[in-house]
Structure formats: structure tokens, C-alpha cells
TrEMBL record:
Keyword Signal belongs to the record: yes
Signal peptide: 1-27
Domain of life of the native organism: Bacteria
Membrane-spanning segments: none
Assigned keywords, A-Z: Signal
Lineage, uppermost ranks: Bacteria, Bacillati, Bacillota, Clostridia, Eubacteriales
InterPro entries: Bact_Sporulation_Assoc, Cell_wall-bd_2
Species annotation: Desulfosporosinus acidiphilus (strain DSM 22704 / JCM 16185 / SJ4)
Protein name: Cell wall-binding protein
Length: 703
């Protein structure tokens, strides 16, 4: 017997549990699917099922991309009552798994990393230490040394059977992972032609009663059988090896699982999902059946095994490890066909959420399910971070539950519920309303109006708004369009000029602010223009003078649609023009809307604030009778013929045929028909402003 090694235990639960539920929650479903968006989320989904939502004390971290080290971990994980969580080589591609561990592993819990720093680097280990966990690593210079460290930490008793599997190919070892884990048997990895010294040492010390060689002679040569027998003369040595991975597996299944109550289906060409599920299968003393997702039929040897156990009276629960890419739906259909089951779901339990507040939400189920607790509900914020559910109570036999959680007004959350390992309905998203929300109505017209909210609230529709006449009759709202991330909504309705209306808004049963009343004005035929934009404001000219306008009559938006404060408005000519003061940014585009008496004046006008004129200079070069080049001191892209004015010495305008730039607006090539010996003057403007002083130049006569 070897000296008892001190085991550092580790385990974890999972971030995401996504199921396909077939059948009602009262009856045994035909299959369960455990999967996530990728192999990391699939491993946490499986861990969630293993732990049933409870905090765990231990977790095993294994590589999601390097199978040899990971394959040794299944028996250790079961011994430690730990889930296997897959990670990448660095923190960047492991964050999903690490976030799950932080949410589900109890404070001060144990993490065992499988593999050396070349497989899972030190930054992952440092992150775990910083998070307050006890971390140990089982990793050597190569896969065989790592395997030796793991099996020696199992501390199996003398005579315990062992499994010899290939260290170069994963399918054979993967097929026995759940068997080894459930029975506590070490998996010893070997090359095809020579046993590692660590394997020789292990079997010599422990003298196993049985040695199971997994794989054909091409994978584990017969000479190794002779070597093993010489090291353990009393051991019974058996080989399970077929023409391919599936036939090898079927031999193992027939021997060790003649009458299973559950089976697990996994991709036979990618080890990740099957490895993650090996401890769950071991927990239920169930085999993992590998399939070929690229085919359209079950492997013949796997199909024969299923028919054999069916004929002995077995009708096992079918479980699936991974999504429909790894295990397509046709696989489930064919398995259920063998057992005479239907994989058609009659429907999941509907789940709805109502009455969101800063202290929780109400969840309704149909039909009712009594006895749910906080562990049956998962709550995520908009960043995907788990929010603690502190309580779940029902007063009507499970038809509705009051879910307690600390939530934030204005924030969006997603709630999922599970029962008996099955997802109930579909995930529900909701936003907690702000109770001090206020609403304002602007730009009323005969076709509708705009509603502004004091804080953004996404996803409102016609059902959230009620519009009434002054006599109290409802007015149909025909459309609602959101803008600015939920800060403003455009409401479409057939309204009458001169009539007064009242709008109420509600969300999740709450009234949003005080109902505002507004009057639709008579149509006002006014237009306006914009000139001299600068970083301190613009000038607005009206088609007919309108005195008395103030900042409230002007709405200024940036190119992203956000409001820009108008700080002051002045007129010196009785309302024919207005100077609008606002803090604007050079090079940015803005939109100005003017309203009066509730009516929009003309159409909204867009303008761009030019860069500082005083800081811009222009130079003219490469003069010829066909044109010239203009250089700008700072690049200004997008100029065209309309931005350049060319005059001859008599002040007559010369036609500019084309304008082009090849360096982002630092230099422009101007094409025009010019005369040798003549003097010309060039002026450049942008957004209504001259860029630097005009430049004069002479076209020299050719020598």
C-alpha cells in the first residue's frame, strides 16, 4: 500500500442549465439535454444538475482543449464529490467558468487544477487565490506524469481494479470514464508499445485483482499485456477492443451496463462534453454512449447494444450531454424509437413574470407546482451576473411565487426556473421601473406626438399607453416607436387640431408619473434656415418673423440622438433671426427642431460645426492650365466642388470640374480650365464658413 496522500478537494456547480424538457413535470420526461452556448457553459450546466443548485465545497478544473490530462480527472472528481469545470489556458477564455465558480463555490472552497502551467497557466491559479479559494495543482512534465500524480492521490486500496487506456487517443478512455468514476477505479494512461514507468510502479504496488485494457492491439500492443501479467501474476487481464471506438465502447457497455436505468449520449469525436458529464453519469451509475454527429444513423454497435437492453426489459432515462451540434436531434429520435418512446414535447410549464420592484418579482406558473424554493430560480442582470434570490414563497399552492431579491430601478433582469432538473417555460426578461418616473409630451400634431421619459425604459408598446379625449373617451394608439434607448417614444394616433388629450403610461402594473394633458395646435406654415454654426451655437432664420421664442422652443440633438442643452436664445430684429447658444463640438453634426404652440415649424435642419477657422490655413501648389492642388493645415474629408469658389481677375466665377482627395482630406486636387498668365483667387468654405483667407495665384506661361 502506498502512503496515504493528502487530497486537496475541489468542486463546483454551474452557471447555466439549459434543458429540453419532454413530457410534463409530473411524468418522467423522455430525455434531458444539458448544454450551454459553448463547452464552458455546458460544463457548468452539468455541474448545476449535479449540485441541484446548492453551494459546493470542491471543484476540479480541467482543460477544455487538451484531453490527456483531463481524462484522468473523472475518478478523482467523483472521489472528491466535485464537478469538472472546463477552462481555457488563460483567464481571457475562462471567464465564464471562473464567474460561475465565484458564484457557486462556497467561500474558502477547494479548487484542484488538472495539468501543468502549459495547459492552464498561473494567471488562472492566481485569480482563484485572490478570490479566496484553496488551490492545488496536479500536473507534471507530460501527460503520463500528470496521470501518475492523479491516480496516486486516489489512495485506492490494494487490489482495486485498474483500467489501461491510450494516452494518445481519447475515445477509448472517455467510454470508460463514468464506469471508472462510479467504481473508483484508476485510469492509467499508456503509449501503444511501452508502459510508462509510473504505470509499472502503480500496478506493482497495488496488485489489482483485475486489469481492463481498453482498445485494440493497435492502440495498446499485446506485449504490454505480457508485461502487466509479469508485474501482477494474480491479476485477471481482459481486453475490450473493437474495430472502432464505438465497437470498443459497446463491448464495455454490454459487460458493465446490462440493464441501466439511465444513459447519457455524447459526441464521440470531441471529448469535452462527455468528460464534463462523466461525473454526472457516475452519480447515477449510468453509461455514456458515444455517437457520430456527422452521420445520420446511430453507430451499428451502439444501436445493437440499445436493442439488447430493450429486449431485456430496460427503458432507461435518456440524457444528452451538449447541444444539437454535438448530439443532433435525430440521435434522440432514433434512440427513443428503439425504446418505443416519443421525443415530442407536449409543452413546458408556462412561466410569466409580473410586478417587478426593487425588492423582487412575482412569478406565475400554469399548472401550479408547489414546494419550489429559492434554489429553483436563477436571476441574472443585463451583464449576465448572477443575482442572489433570497426567498421564494407561495400562498396559493404554487400558482404564483413571490421572489425576493435586491434589484435596481431601471435595470433589466432575466429569470429562469427549474424543477426536477427541467427548465420551466422560457427565460423571462423584465425591467424594474423607476417609481419617480416622469413623462412629458412634445410635438403634438394630428398624427401623434413624442413622449419623453425621465429615465430610460426599454420595450414599451401600445399596451403601455392610454390616450383619452377631454370627454374621457379612449383614442386608439396605432403605433409606438422607441428612440434613444427608451428615453423617448414616438406615439402614432389620429388626433384633431385644437383638441386636448390626456396620456397615461404604465409598466408592469405601475403608473409612470403624472398623466400629462396637451393640446394639438393648428398647423403652422413656417420654415427656418440655419447659418454660421460654431462651437458656441448657430443662427436661425425664420421665413416670417415670430417674436418671443425661448430655449423651450428649440430642440437640439447630436448625431447619436441625445439632447444638447440650449443655454440661451436672443433676437435683435423682432423674431426674424435668433442667435442660439449651445456648447457644440467642432466636426460634429447636429439636428435642430423648432416648435411653437405645440406645432413643429418647418422640417428639422441638420448642420455640421466646422473646425476653428483661425487654426485652418490653405496653400495652393502644382499650378497648371488644367488645375492645381490645395493643402489644408488639418485634414477635412468630404469636400466637393460646392466647397470651392474660383474667381478670375475680373471677379468672374470659374467652373470647377472636379475635386478629389487621396489622403483623407489633407490635400485636394482641383480640376479647372485655366489660362496661362492669368491671376485667380480661391476661396474655401465649409458649413457656411470660410476656411482661412482667400488665396490668389498666377498660372505661369509655359517656357
Amino acid at each position: 500500500m502506498k502512503k496515504k496522500a493528502k487530497l486537496t478537494t475541489a468542486a463546483v456547480t454551474s452557471t447555466l442549465l439549459i434543458f429540453t424538457m419532454v413530457g410534463s413535470v409530473q411524468a418522467k420526461p423522455n430525455y434531458h439535454r444539458f448544454f450551454g452556448h459553448d463547452r464552458f457553459q455546458t460544463s457548468t450546466a452539468i455541474a448545476q444538475q449535479e449540485s441541484q443548485g446548492k453551494q459546493m465545497q470542491n471543484v476540479i478544473l480541467a482543460s477544455a482543449y487538451s484531453f490527456p490530462d483531463a481524462l484522468s480527472a473523472s475518478t478523482l472528481a467523483t472521489k472528491l464529490n466535485a464537478s469538472i469545470i472546463l477552462v481555457g489556458s488563460d483567464i481571457n477564455d475562462s471567464q465564464t467558468s471562473l464567474d460561475y465558480i465565484q458564484s457557486h463555490l462556497e467561500a474558502g472552497g477547494n479548487v484542484t487544477i488538472i495539468g501543468g502551467t502549459g495547459i492552464i497557466n498561473k494567471r488562472v491559479e492566481q485569480w482563484l487565490h485572490k478570490a479566496g479559494y484553496h488551490v492545488s495543482r496536479m500536473g507534471g512534465l507530460d501527460r503520463y506524469i500528470t496521470n501518475s500524480i492523479i491516480v496516486n492521490n486516489l489512495n485506492v486500496s490494494t487490489g482495486t481494479p485498474v483500467i489501461i487506456a491510450s494516452g494518445d487517443e481519447f475515445p477509448d478512455a472517455l467510454g470508460v470514464a463514468s464506469l471508472a468514476a462510479s467504481k473508483g477505479w484508476p485510469i492509467l494512461l499508456s503509449g501503444p508499445n511501452q508502459l510508462p514507468e509510473s504505470v509499472k510502479d502503480f500496478v506493482t504496488k497495488d496488485q489489482p485483482t483485475s486489469i481492463y485494457i481498453i482498445g485494440g492491439k493497435a492502440v495498446i500492443n499485446d506485449t504490454l499485456t505480457t508485461t502487466l501479467q509479469s508485474l501482477v501474476p494474480s491479476a485477471q487481464i481482459q481486453r475490450y477492443g473493437g474495430v472502432d471506438r464505438f465497437e470498443t465502447l459497446s463491448q464495455i457497455l454490454t459487460k458493465f451496463y446490462p440493464n441501466p436505468t439511465q444513459i447519457y449520449l455524447a459526441n464521440g469525436y470531441d471529448y469535452a462534453d462527455a468528460l464534463s458529464g462523466s461525473t454526472l453519469a457516475a452519480q447515477n451509475n449510468a453509461p455514456i454512449l458515444l455517437i457520430d454527429p456527422r452521420s445520420k444513423q446511430l453507430p451499428p454497435s451502439i444501436r445493437d447494444y440499445l436493442i439488447t437492453i430493450r429486449n431485456t426489459g430496460s427503458n432507461p432515462q435518456v440524457n444528452v450531454l451538449g447541444g444539437s451540434v454535438g448530439v443532433p436531434d435525430w440521435v434522440i429520435d432514433q434512440v427513443n424509437e428503439i425504446f418505443g418512446n416519443s421525443a415530442t414535447s407536449p409543452g413546458a410549464v408556462p412561466l410569466t413574470v409580473s410586478n417587478p420592484s426593487t425588492t423582487g418579482v412575482t412569478v406565475s406558473l400554469s399548472p401550479a407546482i408547489n414546494g419550489l424554493t429559492a434554489s429553483n430560480f436563477t436571476l441574472l442582470n443585463s451583464s449576465g451576473t448572477s443575482i442572489a434570490v433570497t426567498g421564494a414563497t407561495t400562498s396559493n399552492g404554487g400558482a404564483t411565487y413571490s421572489i425576493s431579491a435586491a434589484l435596481t430601478a431601471g435595470q433589466t433582469y432575466t429569470l429562469t426556473a427549474n424543477y426536477g432538473g427541467n427548465a420551466l417555460g422560457t427565460a423571462q426578461s423584465f425591467t424594474v421601473p423607476s417609481f419617480n418616473q416622469t413623462i412629458v409630451v412634445t410635438s403634438p400634431s394630428t398624427t401623434g406626438f413624442t413622449v419623453g421619459l425621465s429615465s430610460a425604459l426599454n420595450g414599451l408598446s401600445t399596451s403601455n399607453f392610454t390616450l383619452q379625449t377631454s370627454a374621457g373617451y379612449n383614442v386608439p394608439i396605432t403605433g409606438v416607436t422607441m428612440a434613444n434607448g427608451g428615453l423617448t417614444y414616438t406615439i402614432n394616433a389620429a388626433l384633431s387640431a385644437g383638441q386636448t388629450y390626456t396620456l397615461t403610461a404604465n409598466y408592469a402594473g405601475y403608473s409612470l408619473g403624472t398623466a400629462p394633458s396637451f393640446t394639438v395646435p393648428s398647423i403652422y406654415s413656417q420654415t427656418f434656415t440655419i447659418s454660421t454654426p460654431s462651437t458656441i451655437g448657430v443662427t436661425v432664420g425664420l421665413s416670417s418673423a415670430l417674436n418671443g421664442l425661448t430655449t423651450s422652443n428649440f430642440i437640439l440633438l447630436n448625431s447619436a440622438g441625445y439632447s444638447v442643452p440650449v443655454t440661451s436664445v436672443t433676437t435683435l430684429n423682432g423674431g426674424a433671426t435668433y442667435s442660439i447658444n449651445a456648447a457644440l463640438t467642432a466636426g460634429q453634426t447636429y439636428t435642430l427642431t423648432v416648435n411653437y404652440g405645440g406645432s413643429v415649424l418647418g422640417t428639422a435642419q441638420r448642420f455640421t460645426v466646422p473646425y476653428s477657422i483661425t487654426s485652418e490655413t490653405i496653400t495652393v501648389s502644382n499650378l497648371s492650365t488644367t488645375g492645381f492642388k490645395v493643402g489644408l493645415s488639418s485634414a477635412l474629408n468630404g469636400l466637393s466642388t460646392s466647397n470651392f469658389t474660383l474667381l478670375n481677375s475680373l471677379g468672374n466665377q470659374i467652373t470647377i470640374n472636379s475635386v478629389s482627395t487621396s489622403d483623407g482630406g489633407s490635400t485636394y486636387t482641383i480640376s479647372a480650365a485655366l489660362n496661362a498668365g492669368q491671376t485667380y483667387t480661391l476661396m474655401v468654405n465649409y458649413a457656411g464658413n470660410n476656411l482661412a483667407p482667400a488665396q490668389s495665384f498666377v498660372i505661369l506661361a509655359a517656357n
